[in-house]
Write a structure and sequence with these properties.
Rossmann fold; single chain
Length: 358
């Protein structure tokens, strides 16, 4: 395989599956955690390596090290593995997604922004999701007519905070996820519910239906539910561990336990809650976003740009959300009709958000 994002949590779990099933790793791509990357190189002996910063190539002990976004694309072109795992974070993962599909590779995709931004223009038949919710939906479908697909949300850092105090929350407060430790971006997106909007769009593109929704399930044990036209509903329960979807995405012979079974007597009550737009103002965009899913390019650009100011301490959590909603109102009458228009919209939205910060 080719692994993009090898030092993040998805990357680490992917390499654990590679060890378990003795999968060869042809190429590794990482950001700035070069010490961990070097350990991975020494263990897996990849033929190709790429890192983010061209100025740090000399820190890596390997004969073929590329750098930057162009380096990743070159690595993909010079590799031969039929399967690419894209676990890069954010809009930066779109270019490698496009290149992998252009080269005819199968894509195990953890970079949700690729589908959010450009789902209309991707060969989705070659994509397998590495995401507990979408893996759960895939796992539950069995050919019977579907009525609705439902994914679950944890509720994020502010699910129990007084609504009137959420606006003033700081970046560090938004990182206090009640269930687990994740990267900064996905944790902030969880607090604002942007992450769940993205996942609804992923489900809409992957399963080719606008009939998708989300509810809060605090235990993070139920990952997905499928309502069938016959009136029945099935749910996918599993521990919070990405190795299961990764094993299936890599077409491993899953004939043994990947995770321990859920302790039904130990998980406590399972309950579902509606996602309240008063607590999560971005949730007001849900219906229009599902009706006009190409606007995912707008939402993602506004979200990434506004989060940058929030991360830098320029403003509070509520202001970040306001800037996303303001950009939505300003651009929502436009829908990109091509990848070129996606790229143009991304640039214009970011410039608009940054300009309004001055």
């Amino acid at each position: 395989m080719i692994l993009l994002g090898s030092t993040g949590s998805i990357g680490l779990n992917t390499l654990e599956i590679a060890r378990r099933f003795q999968l060869p790793v042809e190429a590794l791509v990482a950001g700035n955690n070069l010490e961990l990357l070097q350990e991975q190189i020494d263990e897996f002996q990849p033929e190709l390596v790429a890192i983010a910063d061209p100025n740090r190539i000399g820190e890596i002990r390997h004969p073929r090290v590329y750098a930057g976004s162009e380096g990743i694309l070159r690595l993909l072109e010079e590799s031969a593995s039929p399967r690419v795992v894209n676990a890069l974070v954010g809009y930066a993962g779109l270019g490698p997604t496009l290149k992998a599909l252009e080269l005819g590779r199968d894509l195990a995709l953890a970079n949700k922004e690729s589908l959010v931004v450009a789902g209309a223009f991707l060969d989705r038949s070659r994509i397998f999701p590495i995401d507990s919710e979408h893996f759960g939906l895939w796992y539950l479908r069995n050919g019977r007519p579907l009525s609705r697909l439902i994914i679950t949300a944890s509720g994020g850092a502010f699910r129990d905070r007084e609504v009137r105090t959420i606006r003033s929350a700081t970046f560090q407060e938004a990182l206090r996820h009640p269930n687990w430790s994740m990267g900064d971006k996905i944790t902030i997106d969880s607090a604002s519910m942007a992450n769940k909007l993205f996942e609804l769009l992923e489900a809409r593109w992957l399963f080719d239906t606008p009939r998708v929704d989300a509810v809060i399930e605090r235990n993070s044990i139920v990952h997905a539910l499928v309502e069938f036209q016959d009136g029945s509903t099935t749910a996918h329960l599993a521990g919070v561990d990405m190795k299961l979807p990764i094993a299936y995405a890599l077409d491993c012979p899953v004939e043994e336990p990947i995770l321990p079974p859920v302790d039904l007597l130990g998980i406590g009550p399972i309950a579902f809650e509606a996602i309240d737009p008063e607590r999560y103002p971005l949730w007001r965009l849900k219906e229009e976003l599902l009706e006009r899913p190409r606007l995912g390019a707008l939402l993602n650009a506004a979200n990434e740009a506004a989060m940058e100011g929030f991360r830098n301490g320029d403003y509070d959590f509520g202001t970040m959300t306001d800037r996303i909603l303001d950009a939505w109102r300003h651009f929502h009458d436009r829908e990109p009709e091509s990848l070129e228009e996606v790229i143009k919209m991304d640039k214009e939205v970011r410039e608009y958000v940054f300009a309004n910060e001055e």
